[in-house]
Amino acid sequence: MSSEPHIVVVGSANIDLTTFTDEFPRPGETIFGREFHLGFGGKGANQAVAARLCGARVSMVARVGDDLFGPATIQNFTARGIDTNHVRITKGVSSGVAPIFVDSAGQNRILVVKGANDALLPADVDAAEDLLRSADCIVMQLEIPLETVYYTLRLAREHGIRTILNPAPGQRLDLAELADADYVVPNETEAEALSGIHVTNLHEARSCAVDLLRNGLRRVIVTLGANGALLANEETLEHIQPYRVDAVDTTGAGDAFIGSFAYFLASGYSETESIERANVYAALSTLGVGTQSSFVTAERFEAAWAGR
């Protein structure tokens, strides 16, 4: 197994503004929350941090604003050992922010204001081409312009670089463009947005995954939260069991899955074992509060994996 695969994340960096409350307010209602936390987030940044904590060498291709949050975001990457040579500050634009609301059951509701993330364009990908061509795996999400996602997928396919696309936040996409991705990894809501097929259980997830394969996708992994994950490709349709925990906060669990899956896959583990390991890593992230702050070290993961 490769000890330090190179993961490049082309994606978003946000500041998370997390409020904990016993219940969500109704329209027009004001209620008191229990706690507030400000932290570093964004799906791309979260996935980069998860991959780094697992043991990968990680580079980020991103844009931040010229506000207070921009330099702080770059400093956070640097402190975590993530390469920031292709993280650019965008003049006159705010950094991305994500107000997050978490109820007493650990469920969350999230708004995302993309800010500088929307300025990450194909020209930034071209500027980072040498870096991308050195990657064992490129990871993307949808908090940056779709044209940039599609452009990166095409470039990676042209050069034979493995790609993982997390189609989040969920939206309708051009499935023909997604055919360039090696892995498309949605949750239930995102899978429904891609296919139009309602996904609330394993049976519906199977129908959705088969439909996506018929429409040209190479490999689909539908993450099912507490029900594990479903792997679908030309050869198999396999349900990978979850790792059971009593979740405190599910915010960022999907990002923990993606980042760790990229690491395990690039390290040489099989698809199935990579998903099994990512299920454990993602479950462990729900035992803490927040996104990056809840992601565990490789040592913590290995202890849980050995004792599962």
Keywords, please?
308 residues, alpha/beta, UDP-N-acetylmuramoyl-L-alanine:D-glutamate ligase, six-stranded parallel β-sheet, four-stranded mixed β-sheet, globular
Describe the structure.
The protein has 308 residues and is α/β, with parallel strands linked by helices. The chain has a single domain, classed as UDP-N-acetylmuramoyl-L-alanine:D-glutamate ligase (3-Layer(aba) Sandwich), CATH 3.40.1190. It is 36% helix and 22% strand. It is built from 11 helices and 13 strands. It has helices at 43-54, 69-79, 122-127, 129-133, 146-159, 175-178, 188-195, 202-214, 253-266, 271-285, 298-306; strands at residues 6-10, 14-20, 35-41, 57-65, 83-90, 96-102, 108-110, 137-140, 163-165, 183-184, 220-223, 229-232, 237-240. The strands form 3 sheets. Strands 5-4-1-8-9-10 form a 6-stranded parallel sheet, with helices on both faces. Strands 3-2-6-7 form a 4-stranded mixed sheet. Strand 6 and strand 7 (108-110) form a beta hairpin. The radius of gyration is 18 Å and the shape is globular. 48% of the residues are buried. The mean pLDDT is 95.
